[in-house]
Amino acid sequence: MTSYHKWRGSHVFTKSVWLLLLSCCALPQIGYANERPKVCLALSGGGARGAAHIGILKRLEELKIPVDCIAGTSMGSIVGGLYASGKTADEIEKALGAMDWEYIFNDDPARQDLPLRRKQEERLYLIDARPGVTDKGELKFPTGAIQGQKFSLVLRELTLPVSTITDFDKLPIPFRAIATDIGDGSEVIIAKGDLATAMRASMAVPGAFAAVQQDNHLLVDGGLTNNLPVDVVRSMGADIVIAVDISSPYMPADQVTDMFAITAQMTSIMTRTNAERQIASLHQQDILIVPALGDIGSGDFDKTNDAVKIGYKSAVQVNKKLEALSLSESAYNNMLMSRNHPEKSEPVINFIRIKNNANADDQIIAKRINQAIGKPLDREVLEQDIGAVYGLGLFQSVSYDVIEEDGKKGLEVDAKAKSWGPNYMQFGVELSSSVQKDDSYNLALSYQRTDINSLGGELRGGVQFGNEPKIGAEWFQPFDMQGLYFWQTGASYGSYDVGIYDDEGNHLAIYQVTEAKLDAALGREFPRYGDLRIGYRYRTGDGELSTGTPGWDSFNYDTAQLYTRFSVDRLDNLNFHTSGWFSLVEYAKADPSWGSDSQFDQAMASAAIYKTVYGGHVLGLAGTAMTTIDGTAPIQDLYRFGGFLNLSGYTENSLSGQQAGVISGIYYHQFKIIPLLSWYLGTTIEYGGVWESKNDFGSNPELAGSVFLGANTPLGPVYLGYGYGESNNNTIFFYLGRPLFY
Length: 742
Description:
By secondary structure, the chain is α+β, with helices and mostly antiparallel strands. It is about 20% helix and about 40% strand. The protein has 15 helices and 35 strands. Strand 19 and strand 20 form a beta hairpin. The longest helix has 23 residues. The protein is elongated, with a radius of gyration of 32 Å. The chain starts with a helix and ends in a 6-residue tail after the last strand. The relative contact order is 0.09. The N terminus is likely disordered.
């Protein structure tokens, strides 16, 4: 013990002399020796501004300056964690430069990969936001607007070579991530666990990103408590701290003009205040670098290349101080070789484990993971499978990790149930208007209960108020763990108007139809494409004359049909498609033996394809054909055209017949006239009509079309346009939402 203390005292004395010399002047290169000071990085948070850290790392590598430990906050933890995992500055720059940040910050999986049920839910005019609801009727919300599903997968992929290292001191460079416990406001220094999760927690900006649960802590962005962790690297044994402050400066008072600016300024005040305390603690031998990032904001991820260059330039400006820390080439290479070098080859997966706290059976997840046992990890397939599990809509996050047990590596898939589920509320609004005073509105409230059993069954109920009041409920129940076979049944009761028009499109009468409906079907899903179903549909109701010339008879009806339907949906976006295709074919037969008061057969086919060409110009081709094959369909079962995209010059549903068909050419282009919404300017050409006889189908079709301005809004799609048709049928129309509830 005595000899140890003597050596320790000698070591401290030697290091102190070295630091004294360093503080006095810039020294020539110093060879690698045990007595050299420990150089560590403290990297601050600042969102996209954090790309400047990469430029500084590039300069440190050029100068052959050793980095012995790193602590990072928020974006500083991302760059610092990747560097600590063994990646070079160039590799980090390449990885960040290749990221599609808009895609990463959108949790939704690619629409084409969703189950058809989720795609069909989008066709309801309900608003996308789905707060949870407690048993007491209180609303519950996610802990952040972005759950970070894709962002976490990116971090997982980048840190996969060190995924089995749970002690951050054993990384190629010892590392700490700084987070904040939102429960008590304390600083949390993450030194153990999963590196990707630690980085993700450190960058969980409150309100924007969902908080991360780790042990007994609910963690958010570390910038709230320690945005420039100088003291943390000091506690790791740093003799010299290179502190990089890229936090956003205060805005002048005249720029703090709205609630968004005030929120940003409040964040800056919190982060700058604790960063200034850390800067004040720097010693004479420490080096502070503050890149002149100017107007690059924390959200300007499209300017990361600029930030890298500015970071590099800022390091060059303190070259004299940095050069004193340089090692000789041989000493630097020896230092690099002495580090722990993680394997870069894909690990061989010997087992798969599922972690799942939802009610759904583990096999629902396992059946969708196609990783082969005894084969190297196939990340491309795995991430597609993870997207399929997440697309079920049951989970807040679905992540994976490579773990090691008994010397064998395996895959662990961790699915966390939504903290605000499984009971959800949705609201909806649908408005339409035209110059012909053909106005309507509907408001909706829907309740959904997911995960009702181990197979992932769901219940949905809702009520609609407005021109078409309605109440309805449905039950969707898969039969197997893969969800390939299912049963769906629903019932609704409501009323709607049916207009009667003459051949010139003039309004003759309006019937108010009150109807009860029952629908039950068995189906087979084809994952990521569509489904085939066979079902029974029963409708009973009556029609009372609402407006029109007296003498129109009231009526009642019972329509019972057996039907089969095959549908495929590969569109990339429901409202404004840029690629993909859609098709639907249905055959329905009404017969008295099934409870119908009339006998008729009907068939319909619809298809559409869209493609983006030449810099964002979208072209589409769509067609629909509907025919009464046998018998005569009663008034409530006639096919109806008229309205936007269905012979746009005519008012909504003003054409009706036993046969109907239309083919449409569609063009639109996206542009932004205000920053918050994506707008589309487009036009359509439509050719079709309605007919009574099969023999007349396609004869004397009408030419119609439209020009329109559309946008995606938080309430749903909005369209404003002008529709034109033959025989002087012209209209100006407005739509908000999708006119479909149940």
